[in-house]
Automatic annotation (TrEMBL):
Protein name per the record: NADP-dependent 3-hydroxy acid dehydrogenase YdfG
Superkingdom as given in the UniProt entry: Bacteria
Organism, as annotated: Parasphingorhabdus marina DSM 22363
GO molecular function, one term: oxidoreductase activity, acting on the CH-OH group of donors, NAD or NADP as acceptor
Short name of one Pfam family: adh_short
UniProt entry keywords in alphabetical sequence: Oxidoreductase
SUPFAM superfamilies per UniProt: NAD(P)-binding Rossmann-fold domains
Listed InterPro entries: NAD(P)-bd_dom_sf, Sc_DH/Rdtase_CS, SDR_fam
GO annotation (BP), single: fatty acid biosynthetic process
Homology family: Belongs to the short-chain dehydrogenases/reductases (SDR) family.
């Protein structure tokens, strides 16, 4: 199947690449021609993905990456540059979920959500931008940072307050980063996916509550993971040179 945008000549770093959307994006970007750096704490999983990408003719590298540790982030970018080149397509995807009503959710869970979903995005994007600017992105206009948000940032629901707030936070963060770097050749955009079956939800969608949630969507279905492909490739490619500070909902109409 032909892909709508090429990433040939680009080096991409995917944070949170060991499973779910991150693993999918890593394989997608490799198919589009990018040299792909898979960053995650679970390096056994990313090593398997690298083998699969290499077997398919792509170029990939697995690096340890804990987005809550600035030293780990710096080391991941160093390894990417040693193996390939300056990372010019960055996907800030690492995230976790913890559900519960505001009065019930333990503060330890709230702090973990903020550290990973907000501060981790901030740190991954910042380190990437610093290196792009140092490498001449102002002249090249080649910087592409894509933040993975969530439609929960635009919805009101019981049990999602902390998670949704982190996603709303990175949406505003992305626009502010785009403004800061608008003259530095670094574009920052956010994609808000809908509900997709990934490892992070466990077996929720097999439960009565999960089935009821799906029945409440306008199209009575979960969103397919590959429905994000075209927009992800667009934001990571040369084609999106004039697009920065955008946040786009791609959710199969779930939030309508």
């Amino acid at each position: 199947m032909d892909l709508p945008f090429s990433l040939s000549g680009r080096t991409a770093l995917i944070a949170g690449a060991s499973s779910g959307l991150g693993a999918h994006f890593a394989q997608l970007f490799a198919r589009a021609g990018a040299q792909v750096v898979l960053g995650a704490r679970r390096t056994d999983r990313t090593a398997e993905l690298v083998s699969a990408i290499s077997d398919a003719g792509g170029q990939a590298l697995a690096v340890p990456l804990d987005v809550t540790d600035e030293g780990s982030i710096i080391a991941a970018y160093d390894a990417a540059e040693d193996a390939f080149d300056t990372v010019d397509s960055i996907v800030a995807n690492a995230g976790l979920s913890a559900s519960g009503r505001t009065t019930d959710l333990p503060m330890d869970d709230v702090e973990r959500l903020v550290a990973t979903n907000f501060t981790g995005v901030y740190a991954v994007a910042r380190e990437g931008a610093k290196r792009l600017i140092a490498s001449g992105s102002r002249q090249k206009e080649n910087g592409r940072i894509t933040i993975i948000g969530s439609i929960t940032s635009r919805l009101n629901a019981n049990g999602d307050s902390a998670y949704a707030a982190t996603k709303a936070g990175v949406t505003h963060l992305g626009r502010n980063m785009a403004r800061e770097w608008v003259r530095q050749g670094v574009n920052v955009n956010t994609i808000h996916p809908g509900y997709i079956a990934t490892e992070i939800q466990g077996d929720w969608y097999q439960t009565d509550g999960g089935k009821a949630q799906i029945a409440g969507f306008h199209r009575r279905r979960l969103q397919e993971m590959d429905s994000l492909d075209a927009m992800m490739l667009y934001f990571a490619s040369d084609a999106s040179r004039s697009v920065t500070g955008s946040d786009i909902v791609v959710d199969d109409g779930q939030s309508l």
